[in-house]
Specification:
It contains one helix and 30 strands. The protein is mainly beta and 530 residues long. It is flat, with a radius of gyration of 55 Å.
């Protein structure tokens, strides 16, 4: 009995091995179709492809009943000569990629604004799914839409209608030189109205083509004649009379030299307006012919006049120029003058009695001249001393200062700019000096509206950040930076840290963290920026 069971188990195992080998072997291995075809069906039992012998006698793979393609993107239409161009970018409205059974893109066009694609509206096809451009010939405006088809012949939804677009007009730039020949012109196509003035010249006419019998009276106008086209020997004697000459038609360039003599001129025909500037020189003027009353007010310009004194009047408001100075007098006697012959040449502005006088003078130095400007004097009510302002320009400095009018000693505000140093002073408050080597130094406390500093005390909670808020400030600037530091000799042991936030023109919040509750001072600073 045991032996039979063992044989049965061995047989079952052999059958299992054989079955496994059968399931791993191709079902069509070493198979062929003899004058037939293999049909491919989907999971619903619909025929999708026929592989092999086709009903029409051909052999191949025929895809049938495929799903319609996705709707293409809208066509791009433009006008060209003789029609419109239609372009497709190869995309689809739903953003999908081209299906494997895609066949072509159909281009439809119609003069109707609304229509459904049909064989009557089919104008062209695109056989590549990468997109391209085709030309649709037309004489009138058309509306364009497209649709895609697959190898099964199924059509996609058509695109939106684009249009209207029509053929572009033909302009001169579109016509190649020489393309319009005589044979291309219809009979009587060129009329008088189409011939531009002077378009037909003597070169274009055959010899003796125009005879006297072909010229109507009054038909040849001046605008039809080119310069030099009519020679004197071509004119009949006395054919040109005075009434045939248009006003201003005879210009200087048409008159030969010496052709017009004095006896040809009518009396009083030459007036002042007819005499060119500079044409009459001294040789043509009779001695004594020009008197004072013949001179225009602006007749003497750009000329040298030599004399002892030139003045606009003998008294009152006037300008007086002589060899030593130039002085302008006002109606009240005040004056402005230039003294070029002074030891130190200067320009001055003065009251009539000379008590209030501002001077700009040049003083001779060892090598270069210095230019100075001096104001009128004034009395300072604080000390009853007479002062004046002066400004000096030297070869390597510039200074503006208040000085004692009697001693010329500086007193009060002063601004000095030298080659390497600048100084600013304001009375007894001190002097600020700027030097190229040392930077800026203020003789006193330096203050700025955009900087605020101070000290604040904080009694902290042990081990907990404790804050105090500064407010009420008015610091200049549009953005602000805050800086804080604790006043301590125990940083990192008992004073664990200090910081700030909410920095503004009005103040900021300062934070202190300490291991105990000891009140601690904090230095702070806020700087405003533009």
């Amino acid at each position: 009995m045991a032996n039979d069971l063992a044989k049965l188990a061995a047989r079952i195992a052999a059958l299992e091995r054989h079955l496994t080998q059968q399931t791993r072997t191709s079902r069509l291995a070493y198979s062929s179709l003899e004058n037939g075809a293999l049909d491919v069906y989907d999971e619903d039992g619909s025929l999708r492809a026929v592989i092999g012998q086709q009903p029409d006698g051909t052999t191949g793979v025929n895809i049938v009943n495929g799903p319609p393609p996705s709707q293409p993107t809208a066509p791009i239409v433009a006008s060209v000569l003789g029609g419109v161009t239609v372009s497709w970018d190869g995309g689809f409205a739903d953003g999908s990629t081209v299906s494997l059974d895609w066949a072509r893109l159909e281009i439809h066009a119609s003069t109707d604004a609304t229509y459904d694609p049909s064989p009557a509206t089919l104008q062209a096809t695109m056989e590549t799914a990468q997109g391209t451009t085709v030309v649709v010939p037309c004489d009138n405006d058309v509306y364009v839409r497209t649709l895609a088809r697959n190898t099964s012949g199924a059509a996609s939804p058509p695109t939106v209608i684009v249009g209207p677009y029509g053929p572009a007009p033909v302009i001169a730039d579109d016509v190649l030189d020489g393309i319009v020949t005589t044979m291309k012109l219809a009979d009587d196509a060129v009329t008088d109205a189409k011939v531009a003035v002077a378009a037909i010249d003597s070169v274009a006419l055959a010899e003796n083509a125009v005879t006297a019998g072909k010229i109507a009276a009054g038909q040849i106008l001046a605008r039809h004649l080119t310069v030099g086209s009519v020679q004197a020997d071509a004119l009949a004697a006395s054919s040109v009379s005075a009434d045939k000459i248009a006003a201003n038609s005879v210009t200087t360039g048409k008159i030969a030299a010496l052709a017009v003599t004095a006896d040809q001129l009518a009396a009083n025909s030459v007036t002042a307006a007819k005499i060119a500037a500079g044409s009459i020189d001294a040789m043509h003027i009779k001695a004594g012919a020009i008197t004072t009353d013949k001179l225009d007010a602006n007749a003497i310009n750009g000329k040298v006049i030599t004399g002892a004194t030139v003045q606009t009047a003998t008294s009152g408001a006037r300008i007086v120029l002589n060899a030593s100075n130039l002085t302008g007098y006002g109606t009240g006697g005040s004056k402005i003058g230039i003294e070029p012959n002074s030891t130190y040449p200067y320009i001055y502005w003065s009251s009539s009695d000379g008590t209030n006088k501002a001077v700009a003078n040049v003083s001779g130095g060892s090598a270069d001249a210095n230019l100075g400007l001096n104001s009128g004097t004034f009395v300072d009510s604080a000390d009853s001393v007479t002062y004046k302002w002066r400004t000096w320009f030297g070869n390597d400095f510039w200074v503006a200062e208040r000085v004692n009018a009697s001693t010329s000693a500086p007193n009060g505000g002063r601004l000095y700019l030298g080659r390497s140093t600048a100084q600013f002073s304001a009375g007894p408050s001190g002097t600020m000096t700027l030097t190229a080597e040392a930077g800026i130094r203020a003789a006193g406390t330096f203050r700025a509206d955009n900087i605020s500093v101070g000290t604040v005390s904080i009694s902290p909670v042990a081990g907990t950040p404790t804050s105090v808020t500064l407010s009420g400030g008015s610091i200049s600037g549009t953005s602000f930076r805050g800086f804080v530091t604790p006043i301590t000799s125990l940083p990192g042991t008992q004073v664990l840290g200090v910081s700030c936030n909410n920095v503004s023109s009005a103040g900021m919040t300062i934070w202190l963290t300490r291991t105990n509750t000891t009140t601690t001072g904090v230095y702070w600073m806020i700087i405003g920026e533009d």
